[in-house]
Amino acid sequence: MKLRYFAWVRERVGKAEEDVEPPPGVVTVNDLIAWLRGRGEEYAFAFENARVIRAAIDRAHARHDAPIAGAGEIAFFPPMTGG
Amino acid sequence: MSVSVTVRLQREPFDAAAEAHRLTHGRADIGALVSFTGLCRGDEQGRPLAALTLEHYPGMAEAEIARHVDAACARWPLLGVTVVHRYGRILPGEPIVLVLAAAAHREAAFMAAEFLIDYLKTRAPFWKQVETAAGRSWVEAKAADEKSAARWQTSAKDRAAE
Lengths: 83, 162
What we know:
The complex is a heterodimer.
Chain A: E1 2-5, H1 7-13, E2 17-19, H2 29-37, H3 41-46, E3 54-57, E4 60-62, E5 73-77
Chain B: E1 4-10, H1 16-24, E2 32-39, E3 43-44, E4 47-56, H2 60-75, E5 78-86, E6 88-90, E7 95-103, H3 106-123, E8 126-132, E9 135-138, H4 143-150, H5 156-161
Parallel strand pairs in B: 1-5
Antiparallel strand pairs in B: 2-7, 3-4, 4-6, 4-8, 5-7, 8-9
Helix pairs in contact in B: 2-3, 3-4
């Protein structure tokens, strides 16, 4: 699946997008965040306060307990500040 | 009854009067048009602001705005909705976002315009970064904006969708 990062999540991770293949135990958005945090200090920094991170699955808002099976694109970003 | 809907993201400034003309021109069924324009202020917490840069999630931003336009159309008897949102670098005094809501009578137009801008601020994937003499920083989401958006939730079903 493709992961995309925006705003300060993108800056902390150090890239705008990447393709990943999480292991089978990664079932929800929460699991994916926990798995990403273990991938390096830039991820640990980006996701240090997972509670504030918002997620979208295939371009629709998703809760952290949402399952990720079948997702093509998952995005992580801070709370939105448009308008 | 035809509802005229325009949702557009663009880098360049927009002309609110021209958008209003486009929405209402040649129609005699619209009795009320509410126009909201969000502008870039020249200060950020007392410090002069050089510019704002808006990052967005292409594809999702349009989809999320369209979802809320649909929700507004389901909730109020609207005749037209226009949403224009800019991205990229925006200078003080320039417009950022436009919401137009047209209806036969004013109540629906006022309510829909306010509903749309409240949701745009908290649900549409845009992020503002400010440039001041001190450097660049990301704007933090405001609890007051979440509260404004929450006012429009009418049912448990709406809350579950959040």
